[in-house]
């Protein structure tokens, strides 16, 4: 590669390979903005790299060449709307360079550079750079206080106090005090280290503030990711997240998502809060709203006064609130022998609560558990309302009695109290009421339903079912009915 000082007019590269020389341009009038070109790289340049000079060059690129501006404050451009087939890679080099292309990848290098491209990648390098890349695939600021904007590319600010604006992609502020704004689409917005300000945008965004004291502007169906290390307290009333990296503040009513955290406390607000945790050892307190709370082996989870949707996995302690709550328990698929989940301890309250026992995370999982497997154990206690225990989708059938307060099935056992209704499985169930008013639903399979005392409602559903209403006046729907008045 050779470079030559420009003459009074523009220079054009002629020849190829090591013999390539710059000569006065035959065609006049090539411009980069309002600046006349001092060097023109022709279409037949091929793969031979072209270089500018140590000074301030204005380089007009027609072909697909690799172009290096070298020293000075260079301007490099090409034809407007150049096709993708003319893609190359342009390097500004040292100095405050301006690179504009519709087809090439652009790298600024040292200095405060301005890069505008609609294809490939844009990389600022050291210095305070401005990158605009609608149509590009990736923008990287590098060191310095950079500004990155694109509706198509992933954005990485790098070190420095950066401003990022993107849409539908990953936006990472990197180290420094950054401002990261998501636009249309579902964005992943990361603050990184430093005191950052994050915006989600109109879509369903994931906002991860990282370390530092951050401000998070969430809206709609956005979720805020809570870090995995150290003790963290999330207070939805004050909209604050206190963790080892500092206190973050947020707006809106987003989902609080802690997939890997193992020591967090969530305090709900009067709004409809959504909290999802995957690490275990949680303290979760809902409040007056209709909350959706999910935790893995929580130390304690309380629903609060609203009508809540509660999901717990692999055991834990749950107390429903005063509203009409639904509590779901989840188990994972594991074919290894000797599998044992932690006990569940589920307690209803004054509302009409529904507990779903042994709901499996994979349909049809644990169809034939080994004798040593204990996949569900614990206690379900109703409260003051009309409380129902639902066994789905366990396929082997269940034996459950509100008279003896026991339930057993393949891979599970529990103690019952304070319930009014039992719903069975797709298998062959034996469900028994107590002396009060009960509701028994067999589900699919050949079921045996025993009402016992009280005015009972027994429904066998599909299968060949046997129903015994017991004493009092009972309603029965099934194939064989005994002591059923209606």
Automatic annotation (TrEMBL):
Residues 1-27 form the signal peptide. Its main location: secreted. Gene3D superfamilies: 2.160.20.160, Serralysin-like metalloprotease, C-terminal. It holds the Pfam family HemolysinCabind. GO terms for cellular component: extracellular region. Keywords: Secreted, Signal. Residues 131-140, 147-156 have a biased composition (Low complexity). Residues 101-159, 443-466 are annotated as: Disordered. One of its GO terms (molecular function) is calcium ion binding. It is found in: Secreted. PANTHER family: S-LAYER PROTEIN. This is Calcium-binding protein. The lineage of its organism: Bacteria, Bacillati, Actinomycetota, Actinomycetes, Propionibacteriales.
């Amino acid at each position: 590669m050779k470079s030559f000082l420009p003459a009074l007019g523009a220079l054009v590269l002629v020849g190829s390979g090591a013999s390539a020389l710059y000569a006065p341009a035959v065609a006049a009038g090539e411009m980069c903005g309002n600046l006349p070109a001092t060097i023109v790289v022709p279409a037949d340049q091929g793969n031979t790299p072209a270089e500018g000079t140590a000074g301030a060059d204005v380089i007009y690129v027609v072909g697909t060449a690799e172009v290096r501006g070298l020293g000075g404050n260079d301007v490099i451009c090409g034809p407007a709307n150049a096709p993708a087939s003319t893609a190359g890679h342009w390097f500004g080099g040292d100095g405050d360079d301006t690179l504009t292309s519709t087809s090439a990848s652009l790298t600024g290098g040292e200095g405060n550079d301005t890069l505008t491209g609609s294809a490939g990648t844009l990389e600022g390098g050291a210095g305070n750079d401005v990158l605009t890349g609608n149509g590009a695939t990736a923008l990287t600021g590098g060191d310095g206080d950079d500004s990155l904007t694109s509706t198509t590319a992933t954005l990485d600010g790098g070190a420095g106090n950066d401003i990022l604006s993107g849409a539908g992609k990953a936006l990472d502020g990197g180290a420094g005090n950054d401002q990261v704004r998501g636009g249309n689409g579902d964005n992943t917005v990361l603050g990184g280290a430093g005191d950052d300000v994050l915006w989600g945008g109109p879509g369903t965004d994931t906002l991860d503030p990282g370390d530092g004291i951050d401000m998070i502007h969430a809206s709609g169906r956005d979720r805020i990711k809570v870090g995995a290390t150290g003790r963290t307290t999330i207070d939805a009333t004050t909209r604050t997240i206190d963790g080892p990296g500092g206190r973050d503040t947020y707006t809106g009513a987003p989902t609080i998502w802690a997939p890997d955290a193992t020591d967090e406390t969530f305090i709900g607000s009067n709004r409809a809060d959504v909290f999802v945790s995957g690490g275990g050892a949680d303290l979760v307190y809902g409040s007056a709203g209709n909350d959706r709370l999910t935790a893995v082996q929580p130390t304690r989870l309380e629903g609060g006064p609203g009508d809540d949707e509660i999901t717990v996995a692999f055991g834990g302690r749950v107390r429903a609130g005063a509203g009409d709550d639904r509590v779901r328990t989840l188990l994972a698929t594991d074919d290894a022998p000797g599998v044992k989940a932690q006990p569940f301890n589920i307690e209803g309250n004054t509302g009409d609560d529904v507990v779903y026992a042994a709901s499996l995370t994979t349909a049809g999982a644990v169809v034939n558990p080994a004798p040593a497997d204990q996949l569900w154990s614990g206690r379900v206690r109703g409260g003051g309302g009309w409380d129902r225990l639902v066994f789905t989708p366990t396929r082997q059938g269940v034996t459950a009695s509100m008279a003896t307060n026991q339930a057993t099935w393949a891979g599970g056992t529990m103690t019952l109290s304070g319930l009014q209704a039992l719903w069975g499985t797709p298998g062959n169930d034996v469900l028994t009421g107590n002396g009060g008013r009960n509701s028994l639903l067999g589900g699919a399979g050949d079921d045996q339903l025993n009402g016992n005392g009280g005015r009972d409602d027994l429904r066998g559903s599909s299968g060949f079912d046997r129903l015994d209403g017991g004493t009092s006046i009972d309603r029965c729907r099934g194939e064989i009915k005994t002591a059923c008045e209606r």
